[in-house]
Design brief:
With about 140 residues, the chain is an all-alpha fold. The chain is built from six helices and no strands.
Length: about 140
């Protein structure tokens, strides 16, 4: 699929690209937009196979896999743990959010805190953005 012309892009999108180092000439040459779009280290679409992840996404894939492992350690005893459910819960979350989530889950596991205790210690976890952390899937 061919790119739109530079002039047909919205002004705000052109500004975003320019802030990310992609000017009109670079855009016209067909240079990659992923870094300017905020995806230098994360894929723009979820990866289906985390075993064959490109090197540039390795740290991101490892973070996601670590979150699955933490949730498995926390919730596998329920008999309802679902790796697919955990991965679905991570879908659409930014790398920064996943990094924070990893920290919360690690603290929860290390200290054997319940989800209720975590909610008491960290009121921000009551926001809908974090509800997936407190579930087995």
């Amino acid at each position: 699929m061919a790119r739109k012309g530079w002039d047909s892009l919205s002004g705000s999108y052109r500004e975003r690209l320019e802030r990310g180092g992609v000017d009109r000439a670079a855009y016209g040459r067909g240079e990659s937009l992923s870094s300017a779009r905020g995806h230098a280290g994360t894929p723009e679409r979820p990866l289906a196979n985390f075993e064959d992840v490109p090197e540039r996404y390795r740290a991101y894939a490892e973070l996601r896999n670590d979150i699955v492992d933490l949730k498995r350690a926390l919730y596998d005893h329920t008999g309802n743990f679902s790796e697919d459910g955990v991965r679905a819960g991570m879908r659409g979350k930014s790398r920064a959010t996943l990094t924070k989530a990893h920290g919360y889950l690690d603290e929860m596991l290390s200290n054997r805190y319940t989800w209720t205790e975590m909610l008491e210690m960290y009121p921000e976890l009551q926001d809908d953005e974090w509800d997936w952390l407190g579930h087995y899937h």
